[in-house]
TrEMBL record:
Pfam families: FtsX. GO terms for cellular component: plasma membrane protein complex. Residues 269-393 form the ABC3 transporter permease C-terminal domain. It comes from the Bacteria. Signal peptide: none annotated. It is a multi-pass membrane protein. The gene is lolC. InterPro entries: ABC3_permease_C, Lipoprotein-release_system. The keyword Cell membrane applies. It is found in: Cell membrane. Belongs to the ABC-4 integral membrane protein family. LolC/E subfamily. This is ABC transporter permease.
Amino acid sequence: MNKALVNFIVKKYLRFDKKNPFISVSAILAFIGVAIGVMVLILSMAIMNGTAKEFERKLFTMNYPLTIYPKMANTVNEELLNKLTKEYPNLKFSPFVSTQAIVQNGDNMSGGMIFGVIPQNEAEINPIYKEAVKDQLINKYDLITGIGISDKLLLTYDSKVTLYFTELNPAGFSLMPKMKRFNYLSSFRSGLNAYDKAYMYTSIEALQTLLQKEPNVYDGIHILSDDAFGDIEKLKITLKDEGVGIVGWWQQNGNFFAAMKMEKTALFIVLMLIILVASLNIISSLLMTVMSRRKEIALLLSMGASSKEIKSIFLRVGTIIGFGGIILGIILGFIGYFLLDTFDIVSLPADVYGSAKLPLDLALTDFVSIIVGAVLIVLVSSYYPASRATKIDVIDVLRNE
């Protein structure tokens, strides 16, 4: 059977069948279902990737690329800081002391984590802090808070606030409150509500004095690095015998990103089922076509057509329906991507998601996975009915039909 005849039969089977309209309707539904499935998958993966990257950017800002912490008492100190500064001139270091505190202004109170830092060092590694400080002179008991805290406490420049700290009383094994007046200087806006409502900064000298820490001992050192994954390995070697540990921002938020990855995988599988369900219409449509065209198939086989040629006819019909749906889905997916990325069709609460605009970022690997998955489902769905078409009993069909 020549190619022209095969193409003619394929086109004939793809036309709307007026005698059996349900077959054509089933094929149309399969086409639309595959297209919708591919489109939804493209948009969903783009949103998941964009959201993950947006949170990663925000977390990176407030969590610092690398952080050194003590494994034993007094191991993170000025001597270690000087050593690292000398050995790694390409890195920026900011030592800190931290504790929990309650801040009060009038009858309003709020709690959170307060960091004592060296302003010059912190401004070099933390753009959020730098933006809040600008060129202001930071005194010992000046306070910088997240915008959530300052709004809640109704703070204005140079407001006098009271900070309450707790310290363990070794004699009575009790927590004794300690209070100190601070001058409110300014606020920072990180873009993440959790940080804006819980983080505060002051001078490192203030916390060292209030917590009765030695002047040259720190709770940790934040590090700015352009290659955190590479530098952490070098620093581990340097810090091997120093009684300290080091973690990267990805390790501090490992559970969060693992959950995001699992959610993305689960969403991919669930949405791929849309294409799988649509492919069932391809199977039913082709099987009904085979049953309604039994006489034609038997005649073709009796005239010398091979089983391979018959199979290829129905395989092509199924793949044209499926691949057509995939192509339409890709086009609709990218149109949707463009519209969502260009216009504010979906608006998000910035204090919850870190951005008012819906973040989109379609990775090439995700796009390829979607297309490969859809193609495999379509091929498998087309193969079974095509193989059934070759199993027709020619003599029995011609005798009875």
